[in-house]
C-alpha cells in the first residue's frame, strides 16, 4: 500500500520558490518562521486523541441543523411574501358617510364591525363556469350576499346580521378609486351598491343605514366560495326532506340535489347552496340558509383541527388570501392573522345570526322589501351599545348606566381625600372643568383640581384615564359622577385619574343616564339563531318541484 505523506505543504509558494506568493512589501524572511510555528501546531494537533462517540457527529449535525433553520426561515419568509402577494385590496369607504364608534370599555377594548360581501361577478372565465351567465361578463357585479359581523369588545360574543339583497335603500354618493363620482341613488336595491364604485360604497351604504362605523369589509366571489370550501374539506348542512332545486325555465334554480338529513357539501355544492333561493321559498329564507352554512363553517374550522394542523392551515391560508378581497386596512398577512386571532376568541355558541326585519315594499310588494325601521333600529342600537343579542348574554347582563355598581366595592376602599384627580374640559361650554372639580371636592375628593391647561382637545365622549395602580381611584371617581364603565381608560402612562369632559356631558353635575338596551332584548319580530344550534333547512315542495 502506498504511503501517504502527511507533511504540511509550504504556505505561500512551493519548495523551489519559497515566499513567491508573499504579499508585496512583506518580509519574505518571516515566512520560514511562520511555517515553523504552523508546523509545530500541526504536529501538536496530530497528537490529539481522535473524537469518539456522539462528539464526532455534533459538529456536522449542528451545521446541518443551522443550514435547515436558515433554509426554513428563508422559505418561510418567501411563503409569507407569497401570501402577501395574493392579497388584493381596495379602499375601505368610498362614501362621505361616517358612522358612530362604540366607546372603549374599562379595559380599552372596542368592538369590531366587519362587512362580509358576496359578489356575483362574472368577470372571469371561472366565475362564468361556476355561476353561469357568460353574457353577464361585462356587467358590474352585484353584492348578492351582505352580512355585518359584530364582535363584542371583550370578544365574549358576536352577531352576524344580514340584509336581503332585494331591500330597497338609498345608496349614498360614492367616489371610486379612479376619481369617478356616483351620485346618490334613492330607492335602489342594496345589492346594486357594489356597482357604485366598489365594496367601499356598499360599506358606506351600511354605515348610512345602521349609523355604525364599520372597520373592515371582505369580498368573496363564486370561485372564492369553492376554494374555501375545498380548503376546509367540505361543510356540513342539513335539509328536512329530499331536495332538488330544479332549473326551471323562466323561474330559476341551481340544480342542487341533496338527500334528506345531514350532508357534507363539496366545493361546488357549497356555491349552489349559497345561491339557492327557490327551494327555500324566498330570498329571506335564503339568508337563513347562508347563516347555517357560515355557522357550520365556523364549527368545522374549530372542531376539525384546521386551525391547529399546519398542512390544513397552509391550504386555508392559500385559499383565503386568494379568495377574500379585503379593504386596504387588511393589506398584509400579519393584519389578517391578528384579526383572525381576535375572532377565534369568540365561543362558537355565542355567535348569533339573524336577518334584519323587513316589510313588503309598497311600490313592489311581490319583488322587493324595505327595512322595518321600528324593529331594525333597536338592533343597530344594541350593536352600537355593544349589547349581546343572545340569550346567554341576558343572564349576565346588568344595567350599564353607570360604573357605580362596578366601583362600589373599590370606592369604599379608597381614601377619597388623598385622590389627586385632574379635571379638564374638551367642550365649548365654559367653566365645566371648574364646576366638576368643585362637585368632586364636595363628594370628598379634596385634591380634585382643574388641569393645566384646563382645556383639552375636543372629544365626543367623557373619559377617565389612569394607570393600573390608580384603577380603584378612577373607579371611585366614576362612581361619584355616575359615569359609565366605558368611560374608564387604563393607560401605561396615565398616572393618577384624569377626567376629560366630552361633548356628551355639557351640563349637570352627574353624567346623564342613557337608555341602554338589555342583552337579548330583541324586538319580537326578530328571529335570532345561535350558531351552536344545528338545524335542518326547510325545503318548500311546491307540488314536488323541489323534491325528489
The major β-sheet equals:
7 strands, mixed
Taking the alpha carbons of the first and last residues, their distance comes to: 89 Å
- Roughly how much helix do the residues carry, as a percent range? 25-40%
Shape, principal axes of CA atoms: elongated
Radius of gyration: 34 Å
Structural class: alpha/beta
Average per-residue pLDDT, rounded, comes to: 81
**Uncertain regions: pLDDT < 50 for 5+ in a row?**
1-47, 394-411
Helix count?
A: 14
- The spatial strand order of the largest sheet comes to 13-8-1-2-3-14-22
Strand content: 15-25%
Number of strands: 22
Please describe what this structure looks like.
With 548 residues, the chain is of the alpha/beta class. Helix content is 33%, strand content 17%. It has 14 helices and 22 strands. The protein has helices spanning 30-46, 55-86, 125-131, 199-210, 222-231, 267-275, 283-303, 310-323, 333-344, 373-384, 391-396, 404-412, 432-442, 471-481, and strands at residues 112-119, 143-151, 158-162, 168-171, 174-175, 181-182, 185-189, 216-220, 235-239, 243-244, 257-258, 261-265, 324-326, 351-355, 358-360, 369-371, 422-425, 449-455, 463-466, 488-490, 498-501, 528-530. The protein has a 7-stranded mixed sheet with strand order 13-8-1-2-3-14-22, sandwiched between helices. The chain has a 5-stranded mixed sheet with strand order 18-17-21-19-20, covered by helices on one side. α5 crosses α6 (267-275). The longest helix is centred in the first third of the chain and has 32 residues, at 55-86. It starts with 29 loop residues before the first helix and ends in an 18-residue tail after the last strand.
Amino acid at each position: 500500500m502506498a504511503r501517504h505523506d502527511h507533511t504540511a505543504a509550504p504556505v505561500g509558494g512551493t519548495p523551489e520558490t519559497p515566499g513567491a506568493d508573499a504579499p508585496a512589501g512583506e518580509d519574505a524572511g518571516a515566512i520560514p518562521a511562520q511555517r515553523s510555528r504552523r508546523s509545530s501546531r500541526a504536529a501538536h494537533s496530530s497528537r490529539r486523541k481522535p473524537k469518539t462517540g456522539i462528539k464526532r457527529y455534533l459538529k456536522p449535525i449542528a451545521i446541518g441543523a443551522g443550514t435547515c433553520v436558515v433554509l426554513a426561515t428563508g422559505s418561510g419568509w418567501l411563503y409569507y411574501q407569497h401570501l402577501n402577494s395574493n392579497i388584493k385590496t381596495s379602499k375601505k369607504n368610498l362614501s362621505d358617510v361616517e358612522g358612530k364608534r362604540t366607546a372603549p370599555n374599562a379595559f380599552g377594548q372596542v368592538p369590531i364591525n366587519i362587512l362580509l360581501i358576496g359578489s356575483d361577478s362574472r368577470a372571469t372565465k371561472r366565475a362564468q363556469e361556476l355561476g353561469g351567465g357568460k353574457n353577464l361578463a361585462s356587467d358590474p357585479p352585484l353584492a348578492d350576499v351582505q352580512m355585518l359581523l359584530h364582535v363584542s369588545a371583550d370578544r365574549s360574543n358576536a352577531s352576524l346580521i344580514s340584509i336581503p339583497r332585494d331591500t330597497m335603500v338609498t345608496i349614498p354618493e360614492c367616489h371610486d378609486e379612479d376619481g369617478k363620482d356616483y351620485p346618490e341613488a334613492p330607492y335602489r336595491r342594496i345589492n346594486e351598491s357594489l356597482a357604485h364604485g366598489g365594496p367601499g360604497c356598499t360599506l358606506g351604504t351600511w354605515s348610512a343605514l345602521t349609523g355604525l362605523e364599520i372597520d373592515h369589509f371582505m369580498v368573496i366571489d363564486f370561485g372564492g366560495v369553492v376554494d374555501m370550501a375545498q380548503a376546509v374539506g367540505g361543510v356540513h348542512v342539513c335539509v328536512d326532506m329530499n331536495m332538488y332545486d330544479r332549473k326551471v325555465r323562466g323561474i330559476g334554480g341551481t340544480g342542487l340535489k341533496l338527500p334528506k338529513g345531514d350532508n357534507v357539501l363539496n366545493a361546488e355544492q357549497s356555491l349552489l347552496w349559497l345561491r339557492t333561493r327557490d327551494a327555500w321559498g324566498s330570498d329571506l329564507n335564503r339568508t337563513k340558509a347562508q347563516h347555517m352554512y357560515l355557522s357550520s363553517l365556523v364549527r368545522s374550522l374549530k372542531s376539525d383541527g384546521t386551525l391547529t394542523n399546519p398542512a390544513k392551515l397552509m391550504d386555508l391560508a392559500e385559499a383565503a388570501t386568494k379568495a377574500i378581497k379585503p379593504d386596504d386596512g387588511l393589506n398584509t398577512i400579519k393584519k389578517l392573522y391578528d384579526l383572525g386571532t381576535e375572532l377565534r376568541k369568540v365561543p362558537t355558541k355565542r355567535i348569533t345570526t339573524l336577518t334584519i326585519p323587513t316589510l313588503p315594499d309598497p311600490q313592489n310588494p311581490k319583488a322587493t322589501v324595505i327595512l322595518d325601521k321600528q324593529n331594525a333600529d333597536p338592533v343597530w342600537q344594541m350593536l352600537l351599545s355593544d349589547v349581546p343579542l343572545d340569550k346567554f348574554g341576558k343572564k349576565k347582563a346588568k344595567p350599564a348606566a353607570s360604573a357605580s355598581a362596578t366601583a362600589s366595592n373599590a370606592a369604599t376602599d379608597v381614601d377619597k381625600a388623598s385622590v389627586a384627580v385632574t379635571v379638564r374640559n374638551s367642550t365649548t361650554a365654559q367653566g365645566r372643568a371648574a364646576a366638576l372639580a368643585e362637585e368632586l371636592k364636595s363628594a370628598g375628593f379634596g385634591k380634585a383640581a382643574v388641569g393645566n391647561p384646563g382645556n383639552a382637545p375636543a372629544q365626543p365622549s367623557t373619559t377617565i384615564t389612569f394607570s393600573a395602580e390608580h384603577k380603584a381611584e378612577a373607579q371611585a371617581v366614576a362612581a361619584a359622577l355616575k359615569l359609565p364603565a366605558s368611560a374608564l381608560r387604563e393607560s401605561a402612562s396615565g398616572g393618577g385619574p384624569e377626567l376629560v369632559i366630552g361633548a356628551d356631558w355639557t351640563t349637570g353635575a352627574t353624567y346623564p343616564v342613557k337608555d341602554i338596551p338589555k342583552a337579548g332584548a330583541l324586538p319580537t319580530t326578530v328571529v335570532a339563531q345561535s350558531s351552536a344550534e344545528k338545524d335542518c333547512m326547510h325545503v318548500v315542495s311546491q307540488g314536488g318541484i323541489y323534491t325528489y
